[in-house]
Task: structure prediction
Amino acid sequence: MEGKQVTHLASNVHMAATSSLLLSSLLALLLLQPSPSTANEGNVLLTGDTLPTNGELSNSKAVFVIQNDCNLVLYNNGKGFASKTYEAGVNCTLSLNDRGQLLIKSSNGTLVWFTPRGPIGKYAAVLRPDGQVGIFGPLLWSTPEVWAMKRVVDPVKFSTAPSDKNLLFSSQLLNEGEKLQTRDYNFMVGKDCELALAKATGNSLLWGSRTKLKGDHCYVRLNYRGQLAVLNDFNNKLWVSGPPKQEGVHVLVLQINGAAAIYGPERWTTAAL
Ligand SMILES: *[C@@H]1O[C@H](CO)[C@@H](O)[C@H](O)[C@H]1NC(C)=O
Ligand SMILES: *[C@@H]1O[C@H](CO)[C@@H](O)[C@H](O)[C@H]1NC(C)=O
Result:
């Protein structure tokens, strides 16, 4: 919808005299600025987020949608999942609460379906690269959020989404020069050994591991205890995000709000059902 407005406005202004050309580009720039109103990572639902009726998570393998018949369905080439809540409510929405539960609610507020409860905290429901959905959490570590999330996720997807480049799972590495990416941010370990979170444009540094020049061919690994570490070529740990936690599969999400955050372990998944 925003895209349409921009085009409409741009074509109107372009028809006007050349004196307004500067104004036109200024307006276009302003309108094209990333705005919180399009807060949809495409493959992640965080605690506090709500998918509206017909809203979905999607990637190249699968679509996870809260349908207008109130059924929550994972379409994944025969390896799917359904909540079997067909017509159990009207205009149902899907949200993730601070107990790590996915909740289907009918528009009259009735709770229709929910997943098991975990300890209080922030969670992430992730459409994994293999096309299954997993609930990870609670939050173990995060860089500061750059802006506050909007609570209702816009069902309109980005043209560039979806990709899995915003996720790093336990046992996965980011080698020198490799990066996680979301719409506006990059998270990468450079040739200088610094793990840095930066704006995708302008390269302004938002957070760094302070391991600059402390090693050669440095890399980053997330382990099964929820620890993210920067290691050098001799596999020596130069920086670690925090103490070891419960063993299990964890995930680091580079969020649309500019935070890199570790959630885990995985507590529920469509794959197990
Ligand atoms: C809400 O809607 C559901 C399904 O339509 C219905 O079974 C339930 O009785 C309603 N609850 C209230 C409080 O209106
Ligand atoms: C459900 O959504 C439709 C379409 O937005 C709307 O026309 C209808 O009134 C809604 N029904 C309820 C019970 O909220």
Q: What stands out?
A: The helical segments are 2-15, 21-32. The domain at 44-135 is CATH 2.90.10.10 (Agglutinin, subunit A).
